[in-house]
Amino acid sequence: MTNEEILGRVDHTLLKAAATWEEIKTLCDEALRFKTAAVCIPPSYVKPVYNEYGSGLVIDTVIGFPLGYSITAAKVLEAERAVQSGAGEIDMVINLGDVKNGHFDWVQEEIKLVKKAVGKGILKVIVETCYLTEDEKIRLCGVVTDAGADYIKTSTGFGSAGAVLADVELFKRHAGAAVKIKAAGGIRAREDFDAFIAAGADRIGTSAAVKLLTQGGSAGGY
C-alpha cells in the first residue's frame, strides 16, 4: 500500500492525560493535511475540536477509558454527550471484570446500550487482548458481533501490551462479516502498518503514522 492509502486507515491519536489544546490542534491539522480516517482524542476536547474544525474532521473519542470498569450508565452518558458534542466515532472499553467472571451476557448488553446511544455513529469495542485468553477473545468476537458494534479493537495502548498480528487474524476468523477490526497499541513501524492491514485490520490507532510516513525515520507513541 502507498503511504497515502495507509494514512487513510489511521485514527490519528493523542490520548495522553496531559495533552494540551495546542497539541490537539496540531493533531487535527495533521489529520486534515494528510487525510487520516479520523482523530482520536480525549472526550473533553471533542466539543472544542468540533467548534474549531466543524464536520470536515471526523472526531473519534474514547469511553470508559482506559480501564473499562465504569458503570454502564456512565458509559452510555459519556457516549451520548460525545455524540452531541460532535463525535462521529466512539471507542469504548469493555468491563474486563465481567469477562473474567464469565458474564458475557452483561458485556453484550452494555455494548448494545452504548451502540444505541451512539446511534448512526460508529462504535468500536476495545477488548484489551493482552489480558484475555484465546477462548475469551473468541467469545468476545461473538459478543461484539451480536451486540451490533461496528468494530472490534485490540487494545487501549495503556495495557500491558498492544496489538499483535495473531489477535487480528483471530478476529478475522471469528468476528461477524459486518464487524471490522481496529488494531492499536505499539504500531510504530512502516512494516507494521502493512502487516496489520494485510492481516485484516481496517483501521490502525496510532500517534506515530503521520510522522513516520511523511517525515521518515522512527516514531514513538500510542
Keywords:
222 residues, alpha/beta, TIM Barrel, eight-stranded parallel β-barrel, 10 helices, 8 strands, 16% strand, globular, disordered C terminus
Kindly describe this structure.
The protein is an alpha/beta fold. The protein has a single domain, classed as TIM Barrel, CATH 3.20.20.70. Helix content is 46%, strand content 16%. It has helices at 3-7, 21-34, 46-53, 72-85, 96-100, 104-118, 134-147, 165-174, 190-199, 209-215; strands at residues 10-13, 38-41, 59-63, 89-93, 122-126, 151-153, 180-184, 203-206. α4 (72-85) runs parallel beside α6 (104-118) and α7 packs across α8. The radius of gyration is 16 Å and the shape is globular. The two termini are 22 Å apart. The model is unreliable at 217-221 (pLDDT under 50).
Give the second-level CATH assignment, the architecture: Alpha-Beta Barrel
Largest sheet: 8 strands, parallel, barrel
Average pLDDT, all residues: 96
CATH-level-4 superfamily name? Aldolase class I
Approximate strand percentage:
15-25%
Helical coverage, percent range: 40-55%
Radius of gyration: 16 Å
Strands, total number: 8
What is the SS-derived class?
alpha/beta
Order of helices and strands: HEHEHEHEHHEHEHEHEH
Which strands sit side by side, in order, in the main sheet? 1-2-3-4-5-6-7-8
Q: pLDDT below 50 for ≥5 consecutive residues: which ranges? A: 217-221
CATH topology, what is it called? Answer: TIM Barrel
Please give the CATH class. Alpha Beta
* First-last Cα distance: 22 Å
* Contiguous helical run count: 10
Tell me, what's the shape?
A: globular
